[in-house]
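Support case: user asked for a sample of complex input and structure output to validate their parser. Sending the pair below.
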Amino acid sequence: MYSTESQSMATEPYDWVENLKNESHRDDAIGKLREVLLRGLKGAFYRRGQDDAFCEDICQESLIRIIKNIDSFEGRSKFTTWAISIAIRVGISELRRRHHKDVSLDAITSKNDMKIELAVAEEGASGSDIDQRAILETLGELIENQLTDKQRTVVRALLGGMPVEEIARRTDSNRNAVYKLFHDAKLRLKSGFEASSYSMSDIESVFA
Amino acid sequence: MPLSKQQIDTLLTLVVNSSADAMECDGCLVNVAQFAEAELMGASLCESMKKVQTHLRNCPCCNDEYEALLAALEFVEA
Ligand SMILES: [Zn+2]
């Protein structure tokens, strides 16, 4: 299986799309889907400290979203797997929103906030301490000279624990664009290290 | 505040493990259900599923959602 991209993974005995679209079966289908989603949400979110009320709220919002977007289901997975993937994203987004509700972007990304403190012990510095210091110096220079202001802000915010979508919300951007800034920043740092004759295994061996 | 030691380690790990990634977060979401099923079945990955895998390695946010999806599927199948 999975040798071709168009291959459908599994046939489900119950035709979710048909039943959710059919007015006379709809209520029954929504009830069944709600059960599946709730079970999945509990599996994912109990362990993240959430309770039944949270799972029920997310389930309700997810049902609306799933039914609204039902035509975008392409049948490349089971319908329930697709539906659960949407519910999970709704739930995680909500957790992220709550967690970062009172955090402003400025609070974690003020200018010059990408300083690298070279806190390597001076006395008794070993060979690897010296290597570490050199790598940190290079990292500091690369951050300063190779990244754009926007890239620095995104990297700083992500390292400060703010998720991509929360940064997007605060910068009138979208998740894809923020991810791209972060991704390009990492690649610039990587090629910057390589241009300074550091291989990735050099860095791993010193910081592992 | 300067970057903490832990943040520097995280950044260096992300830099070391970064690779060309043709997919963005929205593309990952569209494909992640199919990817999860392929992974759970131990099926070999076609090209578009390999792109999902690369994105998950590069994107901590999508990866976090993927872990939650696996936990949910485990519970539903049980
Ligand atoms: Zn992503």
